[in-house]
Amino acid sequence: MAYDVIIAGGTIVHAKGNEKADVGIVGEKIAKVGKGLVKKGDTNGARVIDAKDCFVMPGALDVHVHLELPFCGTTSADDYDSGTKAAARGGVTTVIDFAIPYGDESLQDAVNNWKGRAKKSCVDYSFHVAVTKWDRHKHEMADMVKQGLTTFKQFMIYEKEGWQADDAAIFGALEKCRELDAMLLIHAESSRVLDELIARHHNEEEMKALGAQLHGITRPNFIEAEAIQRAVKWAEVTGGKLYIVHMSTGEGTDIINDAHKRGLKNILAETCIQYLVLDDSVFKREDGHLFACCPQLKKKPDQARLWKGLKKDTVCVISTDTCTFTREQKAMWNGDWTKIPMGMPGLETMVPLAYTYGVQKGRLTINELVEKCSTAPAKIMGLGDRKGQIKKGHDADIAILHPNRKIKVNPAEMETNADWSPYEGWNLAGFSRTTLCRGKVIVDDYKFCGENGWGQFLERGKPGRV
Ligand code: URP
Ligand code: ZN
Ligand code: ZN
């Protein structure tokens, strides 16, 4: 058989074990996984990519990103150009963003807006569709599913932005998801108590004394835990599929674990890499406000409980919640933590951080990393038939990683538009030496070499694990 590309001599990493084999690619698809595809030095016209001493991994899916998001009085600084170039360098070949309606927009308006932005994407993409006006949008959800948009999003906070869903809306959306075989993603934070805590501390004296630390102080763990508990109850009684996004607390993992013990297979949770490697001590730094994200970073014991949750599969996915703001944008806070644009860059460093702090530190095996960053997110988001595995017939989305080569994080040398990094100066292994997206080499020797517009919109199938 003639291949266009052969990835030769590497160790293929699957979610359930490793394999010493080559990968033969024809066009955009994996045509064969097997030994000795280069016969006696004869490449038969194929481009051969040497993967000797390297891991050959399925491209990662970051199923929680916000690119060019109008938010917190500004617009997030990574768009589908810089954001997906950053993704490629980090071995991420699929991103799922959130299409959010503004004002009176319909779900279709939101999807059309996001499709317009994504035209320049360098990697494949899809959207979760945010249901922000329940009474109107509930009638539009079936049409989204017909378009391969099978996951919806609701926020339990963000009243000012006009995004907040109340309990009735969440209950209704879970019922609707059950009817449509769709899945509901929830940002779980308890808004009324959160607002109360913010109001209690929002005074000159405390802001002067505590600055960005107030971001953490006003969001104790129970703010997330109570909201997760409530969403889990609505999922339990409706039978709708629920996926808790960016879970940041140890309490959250306990609640999900409990639900699983009770046999509730319709309830899933992701965490984000920042909650695994950073903690709220950063808010004491002079530039601590840069680290404000929502939910905010928690404490070291939460990190440990989240890593354990991943190991036990209580937490099924690692994502980033990429929502980049530059130093200048972050400076809008001017000493008031409620005005910090919330979010951080993440796409370029997710896999390197999971590799360096997960695999190299013995918290996850390399196979578990592939499970959490590729195979599970693909299946859960309805892309399991073409993404997330190195397998004949799947898209040739591949990241080749050297097991030890470290690169120091330096924002000036990265693809993200961020002029800072939460991980600046950290030495990370696990950057992608070579990335392929649907058969095309988009990173070579750690440098982006793809093109805008290569990324395709992905219609997705049935989401979830049940
Ligand atoms: O800080 C964050 N995460 N910004 C994006 C919005 C969200 O809640 O995911
Ligand atoms: Zn959120
Ligand atoms: Zn988010």
| Low-confidence runs | none
The CATH superfamily of the domain at 59-380 turns out to be Metal-dependent hydrolases
Find the CATH topology of the domain at 59-380: TIM Barrel
Q: Using the alpha-carbon principal axes, give the shape.
A: globular
Helix/strand-derived category reads alpha/beta
Strand content of the residues, in percent?
A: 15-25%
Mean pLDDT: 98
Bound molecules: N-(aminocarbonyl)-beta-alanine, zinc ion
Question: In order across it, which strands form the biggest sheet?
Answer: 8-11-12-13-14-15-16-17
> What's the CATH architecture name of the domain at 59-380?
Alpha-Beta Barrel
The N- to C-terminal Cα distance equals: 38 Å
Give the oligomeric state of the chains in this entry, treating copies of one chain as homo and distinct chains as hetero: single chain
Specify the biggest β-sheet: 8 strands, parallel
Q: Measured on Cα atoms, how large is the radius of gyration? A: 21 Å
- How many E-type strands? 23
Helical fraction? 25-40%
CATH class of the domain at 59-380: Alpha Beta
- The count of helical stretches stands at 15
Structural features, described:
This protein is α/β, with parallel strands linked by helices. It has a domain at 59-380: Alpha-Beta Barrel (TIM Barrel), CATH 3.20.20. The chain contains 15 helices and 23 strands. The protein has helices spanning 82-89, 107-117, 134-137, 141-146, 167-180, 191-201, 204-210, 213-217, 221-238, 250-261, 273-277, 300-312, 327-330, 350-359, 366-380, and strands at 5-8, 11-14, 17-20, 22-26, 29-34, 47-50, 55-58, 60-62, 70-71, 74-75, 92-99, 124-130, 151-155, 183-187, 241-244, 267-272, 317-319, 398-401, 406-408, 427-429, 432-437, 440-444, 447-448. It has an eight-stranded parallel beta sheet with strand order 8-11-12-13-14-15-16-17. A hairpin with a 2-residue loop joins strand 22 (440-444) and strand 23. Helix 5 (167-180) crosses helix 9 (221-238) and helix 10 (250-261) packs parallel to helix 12 (300-312). The radius of gyration is 21 Å and the shape is globular. The mean pLDDT is 98. The structure holds N-(aminocarbonyl)-beta-alanine and zinc ion (2 copies).
